[in-house]
Each structure stands twice: as C-alpha cells, then as structure tokens.
From TrEMBL:
Domain Metallo-beta-lactamase positions: 7-197
Protein name (record): UPF0173 metal-dependent hydrolase IC608_12135
Family according to the record: Belongs to the UPF0173 family.
Originating organism: Devosia oryzisoli
Molecular-function GO terms, alphabetical: hydrolase activity
Keyword Ubl conjugation (UniProt): no
Keyword terms: Hydrolase
Length: 231
C-alpha cells in the first residue's frame, strides 16, 4: 500500500488495482504544488469525509475526468448526482461498510460539522461528518476526517483494528496536537501515525513536532506534501 500526501487532509492511496483519493482539496490548496490532472488520472474511488470545501475540494471535476466512484454520505452523493448526472456514487452512513471489489470502506463517527459552499452560492447540507476506514491488503487505514477526540474511538479501534491512522492535529477547527496525541495513545494501537490538517492556513498549528513528541504508540511519519510512504 502506497500513501501519497497531497497536503492538508488530501491523500492518495494506491493498493492493488484500486487508487483511492481522500478529501481531494487540490485546487487552492497552498500545500499542493503538483499537476492536479496528472495526479488524479488513475483514481478509481474518491472518499469524502465531510462537505467543507477544504475537503470536498475538486471532487466533481475528478469524477468527471476519471469516472471514479464517490463514497460519502447520502447527502453529498445526492448533491453530486444532482449537478453531474453521470456520477457513480455509493452513499452510505455511519456504521455501514461498502464492499468495493478488493477494498472496503467503513464509515464511523466524527465530531465536527459539514456543509458545502457551492459555486452557485448555495450552502449544501453535507449530512453528518465522518471518519472513513479503508481496508485492503490485510491492512486498515483510518482517515479521521476533521474531529475532536471522543470516547467511542475505543469502540472504533475494537471493531476495525486500524493499523494506520491519519490524524488531524491543527487545532481551532479540530483537536490540537496535545489532544490528538492523547487520543492516539489512549485509544489505538496504530503501527503508523500520519498527522494532517496543520500548517495550511494561519489559524492552524504550523508544525507537527509537538504532536510527534507526545505520541508514545506507533511510528509517527511527518510527511511532506507530495511525498509518499509504503506500508
């Protein structure tokens, strides 16, 4: 499994014949300096944790370019289908698992909010914010989306046993470095921990150093934008 960090909370995961894009905020992302079209050309699935524009991002353009399948909440899938009738979507809700060939995606809680500011000026309700767990190659990768810490993370760990955690640490809009480290240490047994949602904008924590110093379980990989990691 190859993990490519595209900046902010956007990740590209290559696993077997599946190429999965999480929260594809690329256009306007100050941490993404690559060629968007080349980066997404082979994408088979787009996974969106919630509707905020810095996560929904280029979803519709990417679906049009690639024919990929969107996996997200019913509300966001419904909105996409209303503006792009040929979109392939798999709407699901918290507690569900979608089996998609060699991969599966499970949807779990997140504590945040979710709406999309559409190009036509409408505010689109995005349903509940979520975390998404990708299972492939005998591994489980948990993208937490944007969230606070919460006690049911222990249940998520018990049910899904994620090996890889993608953890927001930026504070202000999500948990900050100290709370994120506490959540990792208390609730999970990750082998690999990847911080995200920091350093992109001025209101966010600018460094992952404090988080990395406090994580005592698992190997913290502070990925530079456009770097990749094999797990």
């Amino acid at each position: 499994m190859q993990i490519h960090y595209l900046g902010h909370s956007a990740f590209k995961i290559v696993t077997g014949d599946a190429v999965v894009l999480f929260d594809p905020f690329l256009t306007g992302n100050p941490k993404f300096s690559g060629n968007r079209d080349a980066m997404v050309a082979d994408v088979t699935h787009v996974l969106v944790t919630h509707g905020h524009n810095d996560h929904f991002g280029d979803t519709i353009d990417i679906l049009k370019m690639t024919g990929a399948t969107l996996v997200s909440t019913p509300e966001l899938c419904g909105y996409v289908a209303s503006v792009f009738g040929d979109a392939k979507t798999r709407g699901m809700n918290i507690g569900g698992t979608a089996k998609l060939g060699a991969i599966s995606v499970s949807m779990v809680k997140a504590f945040h909010s979710s709406s999309y500011s559409a190009p036509d000026g409408r505010t689109i309700y995005g349903g509940m914010p979520t975390g998404l767990i990708l299972k492939a190659e005998g591994k489980a990768l948990y993208h937490m989306g944007d969230t606070d810490s919460f006690g049911d993370m222990a249940l998520i760990n018990e049910l899904h046993r994620p090996d890889i955690g993608i953890v927001p640490i930026g504070d202000n809009f999500t948990m900050g470095p100290d709370e994120a480290a506490l959540a990792v240490n208390r609730f999970f047994a990750f082998t690999t921990v990847i911080p995200c949602h920091y350093g992109t904008f001025g209101l966010l924590e600018q460094s992952a150093d404090g988080f990395a110093a406090k994580v005592t379980k698992g190997r913290v990989e502070v990925m530079a934008p456009l770097s990749q990691l094999t797990v």
